[in-house]
Amino acid sequence: MFSGSSNQPLAAAVAEKLGIQLGKVDLTRFADGELRPWIQEDVRDKTVVVLNSLSNPIDHNVMEMVLLGDAIRRSAPKTMIAVVPYMGYSRQDKQHRVGEPVSARVIAKMLEISKYREVMSVDLHNDAIVGFFQVPVTHLAALTILADEVKKLKLVNPVVISPDVGGVKRARNFAYALDVPMVVMEKKRYLDRYDQSETFQIIGDVSGKTAIIVDDIISTGGTIVNSAKSLIAAGVKSVVVCATHAVMTGEAAKNLEAAPLETVILTDSILIPPEKRFSKLKVASLAPVIAQALSGVVG
Ligand code: R5P
Predict the structure, then answer these.
(1) Ligand 1 pocket, 161 CB below 6 A?
(2) Would you call 240 helix, strand, or coil by DSSP?
(3) pLDDT digits (tens, 9 = 90+) for 243-261
């Protein structure tokens, strides 16, 4: 198993759970930024796993996956599995307007031409992305580890909130796991105002309840902050947040800390550096989920 540079602690935690060592790989870059990875293990006839999140810097990490794949396949492995805990570009899963790419499909094709024979990822923005791959995809969920963290909070009168219509299925599964009701919010995103959204209405009863907002990604934090404010205005007593991917751009950490939120539970699908950590943050590790999924194919 090799790690790219984006999330070495998660790769190390998965390797430890599997009882294997991470393979040695040199990820040297030339002065102009060109990557020249060098695999320093004998991978012939082996099942090789490469773990790397396609997080910021996304294009840099995509090229790591592509060139690591090419380096490994030239040494005749038995098979190669790409573990991509966070798949960057997954929000561009359709042409939102004419003239745009379907970026998630392009990423799928890039992994395939790099000769990965299987792909594992966690909470893809849209289930349909699985269909962009011709190779088998194991689509893992952070639901269990996030729900376990929520259960520890022993919340009074909880309700699960989907902050937008696109997240209803995710929230419904979460509500089902916790055996609590679900409410949907309506969010509007303007195509010409990147990274900005507005919350319009709450469809369901939230007054006097503890809201658990469930989302796949926190990027600017705008969705969560706007949703929390609307929920509090509608009579919610307190707000807890669960999300899988800590994209956490710009002032997200500061804004989440200042927002009316009790706890924000995220996973380590993306490495959260010290400067993006804040007092309300709890991080649940995906290592057991990924190791469990890999245990059938390695060792
Ligand atoms: C969008 O549909 C996603 O599910 C998230 O709600 C979104 O990416 C969050 O972005 P931000 O934190 O910038 O509001």
Answers:
(1) no
(2) strand
(3) 999 999 999 999 999 999 9
